[in-house]
């Protein structure tokens, strides 16, 4: 099951204007977007985080969307390759992100 999820995320096509997601990925991303946007709009005294005063609810959702998209670029494979848009950086073996030669070259 884990390998199937990993492969599903790696094969999302980000090269066009729209990404086609599985139902499970779409549901998970929508939930994550809501959770991130809500966390941006409130203080978390336990972790020392102060809410983003410059954001309203709509811009918090957009910021969460950007953060998720940026994260996906670290997992999704570039078309025709077996590595991500970030050369599998950051290193995350659970997502199949093992360093490529270019990871070291650009680092």
Describe the structure.
The chain has 4 helices and no strands. The chain has helices spanning 2-10, 23-40, 57-73, 101-106. The N and C termini lie far apart (33 Å). The relative contact order is 0.14. Helix 2 (23-40) packs across helix 3 (57-73). The radius of gyration is 16 Å and the shape is globular. By secondary structure, the protein is an all-alpha fold.
Summarize the structure.
This protein is mainly α. The chain is about 45% helix and about 0% strand.
Secondary-structure blueprint:
Blueprint: H1 2-10, H2 23-40, H3 57-73, H4 101-106
Helix pairs in contact: 2-3
Supply the key terms.
mainly alpha, 107 residues, 4 helices
Total number of helices: 4
Query: What's the count of strands?
Result: 0
Query: What class do helices, strands and sheet pairing give?
Result: mainly alpha
Q: What is the makeup of the main sheet?
A: none
Share in β-strands: under 5%
**Low-confidence segments:** none
Series of secondary-structure elements, N-terminal to C-terminal:
HHHH
Residue-averaged pLDDT: 92
Radius of gyration: 16 Å
From the spread of the alpha carbons, the general shape counts as: globular
- Alpha carbon gap, first and last residue: 33 Å
- Helicity level: 40-55%
């Amino acid at each position: 099951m884990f390998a199937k999820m990993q492969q599903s995320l790696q094969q999302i096509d980000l090269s066009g204007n729209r990404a086609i997601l599985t139902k499970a990925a779409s549901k998970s991303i929508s939930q994550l977007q809501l959770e991130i946007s809500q966390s941006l709009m409130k203080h978390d005294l336990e972790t020392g985080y102060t809410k983003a005063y410059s954001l309203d609810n709509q811009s918090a959702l957009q910021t969460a969307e950007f953060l998720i998209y940026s994260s996906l670029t670290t997992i999704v494979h570039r078309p025709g390759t077996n590595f991500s848009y970030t050369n599998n950086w950051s290193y995350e073996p659970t997502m199949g992100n093992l360093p490529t030669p270019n990871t070291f070259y650009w680092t």
